[in-house]
Amino acid sequence: MSRPGFESQELNENASFGDLATRRLSRGLTVNEVAIAIRVSVSHVFAIEEGRFEDLPGSIYARQYIKSYADLMDLDANELLEAYSIKTKVVNEKQEKFLKSLPTGATRHVAPGVMIRRFFIFGGLILAGTILLWQAISIIIAPKLDISSPEPRLVTASKEIEVHGVTVSGARATINGQPVLVDENGAFSKHVTLSGGVNILRIEARTRYSRTAVLERQIFVRP
Fold first, then answer.
1. Tell me: the pLDDT tens digits for 67-83?
2. What domains sit in the chain, N to C, each tagged with a CATH number?
3. How far is CA 84 from each of CA 11, 13, 66, 160, rounded to the nearest angstrom?
């Protein structure tokens, strides 16, 4: 079915785009071979041969495709380009007339190519917004921080202890202000020397822009 404004009627053109198909067939070339030679899609080759210019990209690309095809077939590219200009002018005028005839607020036809471009633009905006939202959340919320050892309120006779924990990959961790190496999985560990009596271990973790996650462990060393 033809689109509104894209009527398939004969135009008074000296050049015919059907000549391209005739010349291609006389040379024993397939549509796929032509598409490879002029570096366009097979659907665009068919669109050129059948004069379906509404299925081609913008005018600049369409004219380049037509010229490349004409040169490949040793046809007069200027005649075909002139015929393209005549036909697209007529089509554009009819489409504009059709759109003007629509009642105010009526739904207007949108070409598939335009709809696809709008879809990708809209999808890109959603993706960009999601990324920005995630970054904003990362700034507001402190990173995950878990300590597997030592356990809370530990009582021990040893003056040495191993601290094991996990945070997010890329975070910076410290124990009582001393930096701790965090591996690619977010895990970290550090040997800590204790003193007699009550010891407070303050473990912190943060990413570049986030808040700081803080956990404390109280350890009592018996005499």
1. 898 899 888 888 888 88
2. 18-101 (1.10.260.40), 145-221 (2.60.40.10)
3. 10, 9, 9, 85
